[in-house]
Amino acid sequence: MTPTLVPHHPRTSSAPPADTGRRARDWAEIQERMLAPLYEAVYEHLEVGPGTRVLGLGCGSGLALLMAAGRGASVTGVDTDRARTALARERLDSGPEHPGSGAPPCVRVVEGGPEEAAGPRSPRFNMITVFQPIGCTAGDSEGLVPALEAAVPLAERGSPVVLAGWGPPERCATSAVLRVASRLTERLRSDGGWRPTLRDDLEDVASRAGIRPDGSGRVSCPFGYADPDSALRGLLSTGLFDAAVRATDPAQVAKEVEEALHPHVRADGTVWMPNVFRYLIARTP
Q1: Is the pTM for the entire model greater than 0.70?
Q2: DSSP 8-state code for residue 96
Q3: Strands 276-283 and 160-166, how do they pair?
C-alpha cells in the first residue's frame, strides 16, 4: 500500500524514474512535516511511549515513525516507495534513544506491504497507523481496506488502529488547489477526480475492514511554505497531480497550480493554507 495526499497514490502511475529521488526529497523536506500536528495529537491521545509497538502503513519517509520513536516506541514502517523508504531508514538510523534508558528503540522500515512487517520472533504490534488522509479524491480508500485486513492479524486484540482523513472542504483551504488536478484529468476519469470529504469516510473504511470505531478527533494542520515554488514542489511531491501531468503536461499543471495558490500568498511571499484533518481510532477484533 502507498500513500494518498499527502503522500502518493497507489492507483496512479508514478513519476518518471529520473524524478523519483527528487520527489521523495521534496516530500521529506517540504510536505511531510505539514501533518506533524496530526501525528503529535494522535500520539498524545493514545499515550504512545515505551511499550508501544507501532506498525505504520504507508510510512513514507518516516517522520511519523521518528516522532513515535522519540517517545520511546518501537516502530516498524512499510511502504512500496523505494526512495521514501530509503529516506525513512536514514532518518531512523540516526534517530532518538529511549528516554532515560540510553537504549535505542527497535526500528524497522520495510519496502512492501503489511505482510512484510511480521517477524518470526517479534512480539505482535499494539498500534497500527495509517496517516495518509483519505477523502480528497474519488476512490482514494480503495487500497486501504485490503491493507488493513492484512495488517490487523499482526496486532494484539483490541489494539488501536488510526485512520486519517481530510476535514470539510470549507475548512481546508488546500481543497481549491486539489480541484486543479480534477479539472485537468477530465479525460482520465478512471483515475479518480476531486470530491468533497464525506462525514463518514473513515467509519466506512473501518466497517469494511472489520474494525470497530472507538473515538475520533480533529486537528489543525495548516500548509505553510516559504514561497510559491516550495508550495508547488511540495504539492507535486504528493503524487495527487500525476494523472493531471499525464492528461496534459508538467508545465500546464505547474501553471494552474501556481494560479490556484495565488490567493494564499501573503505579503511577505510565504504561502499559508489553513486545513483541518480528522482522525478515527478503531480497535482490532
Answers
A1: yes
A2: P
A3: antiparallel
